[in-house]
Each structure stands twice: as C-alpha cells, then as structure tokens.
Amino acid sequence: MRSFCIIASAFAFADCALAQTATERVIPTLPPQINALPSLTPTILDNSAPDAQDCPGYIASNVVENGHGLTADLTIAGANCQAFGNDIADLVLEVNYQAKERLNVRIYPKNIAPANSSWFILPSHIVDQPEWDGKTTAESSDLKFEWSNDPTFQFRVLRASNNEELFSTYGHVIVYEDQFLELVTNMVEDYNVYGLAENIHNFRLGNNHTQTFYAVDAGNSIDRNVYGVIPFYQETRYHDGTNTTSHGVYARNAHGQEWLLRESTIAYRTLGGSFDLYFLSGQNGNGGSSALTTIAQFQTGCIGTPAMQMYWTFGYHQARWGYENISVSQGVVDGYREANIPLECFWHDLDIYDLYRDFTNNDVTYPLPEFTQWIESLHENGQHYVPIIDSNIYVSNPKNESDTYAPYENGKNLQIFIRDPTTGDFYFGNNWPGFSVWGDWLIPSTQEWWTNEIVNWHKGTPFDGIWIDLSEAASFCAGSCGNGRLTENPVHPPFLLPGDPLTFDFNYPEGFNISNATEAASAAAASASQSSVLSASPILPAPTTTTQGRTEPTPGVRNLNYPPYVINNVQAGHALGKSSIVPNATHNDQYNTTEYEMHNLFGLQISNATYHALLELFPGRRPFTVGRSVFAGSGKTTSHWGGDNTSTWGSMFLSISQAFTMMMSGIPMFGADTCGFARNTDYQLCSRWMELSAFFPFYRNHNVKATIGQEAYRWSSVAESARRAMAVRYSMLTYMYTLFYYAHTKGETVMRALAWEFPNDATLRETYNQFLLGPSILVTPVLVPNTETVQGVFPGIGEGERWYDWYTLAEVQAQPQENVTLSAPLEHINVHVRGGSILALQQPRLTTRDTRNTPYSLLVVLDESGKAKGSLYLDDGESLEQNATCLVQFSFADSCLNFSSEGDYHASQPLANITITGLADPVNGNNTHQRRDWAHHGGPQHSSLQYGGTSCDTSTFDTSYDNGVLKVSGTEKYTEGGAFQKDLNLCFEW
C-alpha cells in the first residue's frame, strides 16, 4: 500500500517541491565519433543531449594473466568527455572464471578513496558478491573471455564449446563517469530476452523497450519502473528449432539505471557504481543449456536460493484496507466459514493502527485485550494472522506531551534515522501518519531498535508474520518537508484518503457495462456527480510537480538530486526525489553514505531486518515476511506481492508475466492482489482471478477502501469458483511444498513459462496466457470477460507428451501446436496433468492444518512409455533447521508402482488410494502392445503388494477400471502407521 496514485497522485505540498535548480545547458566539445551506434535516446528529457558513445573509451595495459582470469589497467583514451558526469580516467579490469558456469567481469576506479567507496562499490555484506570457487580455470570454464584494444578496449564473452558469442561490446566504447556508466552489447537478430524484474510488461521483453530501475511507490506502472530492482536477464536462442541455447547476464549494481533494449543492441546505463557483470552459461551436465538451468545458476551462484516457507503460508489469505473494527473482521472470518471456503490467514491493513502509526492499536476499534483474544481465536481454529508494518516512523510533536510516540523516541535516542544533509537533523518526510522518519539500516543499532519494537508489539498483537509496505522507501512529499513544521503533526497526507468525503471509486472492469448494464449506468452517473462537486470546491491545493531537465556536469561536483542523466522514472518530472526520500539524504555510517547509492536497497534491508527480528521473536521458526520493494537476493528473507494493481482484466493478465520474473529472480513466494487492489471488481473478474491465483504460490485477496468489498463469499458465482479452485490447490499442497523444497535447495522455479519447460518450441517464446506449476501441472485461465471458453496449447504433443484433464483424467486430444478451444464456464479453470507424473495428494479442508491431517492418495499419470515418476518432500512445516526430513521418490514402470523414502520424518497419515491413468491406448504417440492389452482386458487380473519387504494380501482391495483409468482403494489397511514409512512395491498382472 500506496501513495494512491489512482485517485489523487498529483496532489503534493506546494512548498515541499524540490527547488527548480536547472542550469543553462552548454553542450561540451566532444571527440569525433568512434563507432556508429543505432539510435538510442540519450536522456528522457533532452533528446539533444550528448551521445555517450562519442566519448573516447579506454585502453587496456599492464595485462596480467593468472590461472583463473586476468587483471589490467584501463586508461581513458582521449580528452574528458563529461557526457553525464565527471570522467574517471583510470580504471581496473578484473576477469575471473569463478565457476565452470560463471564468468565475472569487473571494472571499477583505481585507487578509490574510502570515503567514496560506496559511490562505486556495492558492499558485499549487503548484496552477495560471488567469488572464485578455487578450482575453475580458463581452460575448464564453459565460457571464454576475449578482448581487444582496436581502436579502444572492448570485450566479448563466448561459449567455449562452439564460440557462440553471448555478449559483445565490440564496436562500442565503455563510458565510466562518476554519475554515469554505459556499456552496449550487440544482440542477435530478433533476440529473446526475459527478466529484468520487476516489470509489468509482456513476458518476452521485446526489442523496443526501456527498463528503468528505481524503486518507486507507483502502482500498476505498466512498462515503467515499479517496486523491485533485479538486474538480471536470461536470453534464449532457438537455432531453427533445434538445440535451443540459453545464457544469463547479471549486473550487480544498485544505482538507478536503465536497460535500453533496441533492435540490435542492449545499452546498460547506470547513475553510478561499477560494472560488476556475471555471465552464466546455462549449461547442464548433458552438454546443452536451458533457461531453467540458467535461472538456477543465477540463484545458486549469484544471489542465493529463496527461503523455505512455512507450510501454512500456502493457504488462502484475506486482507483489506477497510476492516473497521474487530466485529467487521470477525464477520469476514465467519463469512468464509459459512460459505465453506478455506481461509488460512487474516491480514489487517492500516485500520488497526492509532492514527496510522506503526506498532500501535486503535483503542476504540481494536482495543486490547479484546484484539489479542480475537487473534488467539484464529490460532485455535488453525488459522493465522498477519498485520501491516509501514516503513516510515511517525515523528512525535515536540510541543504536545500527549503526542509522544515511543518507537520514534526510542530510535531518536539511538540516533538511527536517515538524515537531512542541509540541517544535520533527521530527514523529515511525509507518510500516512504525518511527518515521518526512516531507519538507517547501515548501522547495527537500527536492527536492535527494530527488533525491540516488533517483539514488544507482538505481546498485544500476536501475529504470525509481517507485511512490510512502502519499502521503496516512499515519502508523500519531495524533500525534508517536515523541517520547522513538526509542531503541526499529525498532518493529513497531501492527497485525499480513501474514506474521505468524495473519494468513492466508481470504476469497474471492462465488460461490466455488458454484464451489469444498470449498475454501470448508475456508477457512471454517481462518478460524474462526485467529480462535479470536487471540481467546484477543491479540497486540497492545486497539484505541483518536480519537473527538472538535464543538468550540466560540473567538474568535482555530483548533483545527486538531479543527476545529468535523467532516467525515465515514472514519477512526475522523472525526478528521483518525487514520492521518495531524496537522493542526497545521508546515512549514519562513517562515510555518510547517501540515498543516491542506497535507495534501491531499502526494501532488501528492511526485509532482512524484519526477518532477523522474527527469528528473535520465534527462535528456530522460519520467518514469514512479505515485502513490497525487493532487490537481487531478497528471496532469502522475504516473499513479495505484486503491489497496487487494479481490478481490470489487463492487470490480472499481466500478473502472470510479473510472476515469471519473480520466479527468475529467486522470489518464488509471489502473488498478485487477487481481484485487484484499486477500483471495483465484479463477479466475473473476481471469479476468474480467484481461480487464477489459486495456482500462484502466494494466494491473497486484498483491496482498498472506497470500493466495494470483494471477499470470495460476496457473490455466489465467486464463492463457487473459489471452492472449486481451492479444492484443487489444497489437494496438491504437498506438490507445491515439494516444489519449494527444490527451489530452496537447487534454485528451481515453481511457476514456469511453457517456453522454459519446452525449450525447442519457438512458438512458445511469448506465451504467458498459460503456465505450468512445476513440471507437471498446466493451468489455462480465462483472462477476458463474457466468455465460457478459453484457448490453450498442449506443448510436446506429437513429440511424446501426453496431457490429461485434472477433473476427468481423460487424455487430451490435440494436434501439435494446436490452439485448442476448451470449455470454461465461469466456475471452472482448466487444469491438466502432464504424462509421466506422480503426485501425492490429500483431501482439501478449510485450513492447511486439517488438510495435512487427511490420508494421502497417489495420482499416477503415464507417459507414452507407460512410465511415471515424482517426489514428495516432508518435514514439520515450520522449523528453520529440521531435526528430521523425508524425501519420497515414486516411480511406475512395467506395471509396477514403487516408492522409497529417505529420512527420519514421520508422516502418520496412511495411503488411502491410488489412481493410475493413461493405461488405454494413447491418443497421440506410439501405441504399445502392453497398453492395448490393458484396454482389451478391462483392467488387471491380479495384483501383488510388498510393503516394507512384506507381502500383503490384495484381495481386499477395491479395484475399478474404466477407459484407461485404474482406481485402487483399501491400501490404508497396510499403511496405517504412515504412508511412506516403508518402501512399497505394487504390481499388476493383466
């Protein structure tokens, strides 16, 4: 949550705007152009600004090779350019073959003064800096580094096995200035690049896209910068449909930056820092390379694998800004139970707070101890509770003794807040409670303070996890607007709040005028009336902006608030200080590091701090945090939601590609605000979205005040859609949990693009209207209004793949690459299972606790060879370090089902039944004699079971066979001590 851009984003304090300090622009004399460069917009506000590729570049000298790379000096090759900053004349080049699959190229200034270190070097204690593994050499690497000084220093990275060029600056100069870096790589024709999260954009980024990276409080900013900064891309090359290859590039830099994807090049530009590039081969042990391997290499080798989540977090979560009191909250809990819809966790937005202040409780609407008892009643029902914590801290009014706010006073005593460089005092921005400050995560005492506040608050509000909002960090004014005005606190935010007079949102989704014509007409009339009243009597001052054009580089000076290169920041005027802490604000470390260097890291740091605070509160238990702003490596400590989306079909559609980028970025616990955050949903959109989100890892419904309620039970159609989709989700919770185990241990993805799983099918390169959950579950959602059908493809058909309908277990009949029309009535989402899979399932209940206590069943889905395999990971579902785990491996071949377990964890639930589908002739692929026999005989004539090496009587089994589907029940008699305590071998004779 949010600066509420959709209602009144333009409102701001007139006297809080950053000063307009533009200097007259003088175009410097530039050296002759060295190499022609395809047209690239030099800076968003000034197309006549200099082209940095006219700069002289560098010459390499003093090259020293070692067993695993080389070092060299880089010296500027001509007169200073000063395109968008002060040139750095002397640089260091380091090339390091860090691991077989990873090559690192670093370029940074020579002889950096300690006080300036943070200008250029991203500290390794904040963001992991991968190093040499101690064994890889240039000869053993998958990759090869080549360079030239003709005419200036340029380099390229190739695949060692076949000299495939993966990255090349040849024909371009490297630009290195104190506020601007540029590096341009040549790209193959019609290239396929993915990632560069966080973005709300098509899955394939395309060849005419600029990805800006600057963490920003701007909801649903399509094709612009948003909350997260993860400078990693993966490229796929199809090679005419055979031997598809993949590789990745990670640029470890936290400054504001842009990636300009153009027809034949990608230009990488940053506002500072260094070139710290990691090239990933994507190669696997079989000699090929793939997107999935590349993504895993990024996580395991560069940023760390994501945290393992607690089992209960995979249940359904309900939130809203607008649950006014305990009674309303209880009504929501009751509404879900009465509608027989699962509800795992209840979330509170700002409503619980006293005047929007963190770590407080509203004594009227959420009084203690009644509120404490209400939360404990959730716990007794096997449910959980998560509240919001905003990233700002309210400042006590110094003239009002009754306004003393302990969290601020405690932090003030420790001097742990970010500072205003003009006054030396704290930086006083503005947020929901009024003038506010922000913790400085660079000093250890801030962690101590944050932990104490969270632990103390838990005593009255016994939460189970923390929701971290506004962690960009967001401020509702520009500059330290509270200077000299703290006696006015608490002040109203500089825009209308939802719930204020004349703020009701009358917007509804596309298609609402067709499905709800009368209501749509009434909403349009009410909206027009409200707008007329607002126009006649403005409540707030006229909007102001912080527009600022390109400033001229000044020798020896860095203009932090308005750097010479203007990135395409989504905020008004593209200003970096609009709706955030201004870049020249300072920290309390010994070098007074500025926000210019640290801005994009605030979300990572507050998530890390919250993670460690929860470890202190719940020793030995996995912390559950969900943060809004993320950076590379955030997944080690936090989950993430898609932020302030809208109740539109387009927003729902784009949530899939947004999820893909989070899977690539090592943050798999991701989900969008289901049914939309801002604007009003309707029964159609909410039905379809509840179905879609049931297959996202993080499943939460959340919306804003001043709109209609959208809990799933409010419409009968949405309630039925939710029940059906959740029944599928809850039955396969063990599968989703196992996927997270592999994400945590191996960097595997949870949600998957079809192109990742079927890399040789170039027709899938832009597909994101469907997705896979792991390798086995294909989801085909409806993403448009007023329809009861949906189209989808079934990849791999014709090449050995078989697909089965989840609900009927019937095999799909389709042609290769056919866009099949599927029936999709409003309450139905199409789900298909991939042949060759074995899934361990349980019976869905209203909570994950109750679901996990039901017996297991196995679903065996055969491939064209009559085989299948799968796995199941089990543990206690919450411990950070497990005392016991169990990994079960399943296989089916030659008419026999086998499984074996490794580990000491005991799951007491029995195995109740087994279903095997695909026994009849396959619709596609090669028929086998054995399958024709199965179909002919109508089922098995005899079966044998060995459980733990002991033969068991199968005559009591209840067995049925119909159209290729064999169902066996009665196995709980032999597995009542726990389904997977012993190895099992079950064979059939036909």
UniProtKB/TrEMBL annotation:
Residues 306-739 form the Glycoside hydrolase family 31 TIM barrel domain. Residues 537-555 have a biased composition (Low complexity). It catalyses: Hydrolysis of terminal, non-reducing (1->4)-linked alpha-D-glucose residues with release of alpha-D-glucose. Residues 537-559, 925-949 are annotated as: Disordered. Keywords: Glycoprotein, Glycosidase, Hydrolase, Signal. GO terms for biological process: carbohydrate metabolic process. Residues 1-19 form the signal peptide. GO terms for molecular function: alpha-1,4-glucosidase activity; carbohydrate binding. PROSITE patterns: GLYCOSYL_HYDROL_F31_2. Pfam families: Glyco_hydro_31_2nd, Glyco_hydro_31_3rd. Residues 747-839 form the Glycosyl hydrolase family 31 C-terminal domain. The keyword Signal applies. Its EC number is 3.2.1.20. Belongs to the glycosyl hydrolase 31 family. This is alpha-glucosidase. It comes from Lentithecium fluviatile CBS 122367.
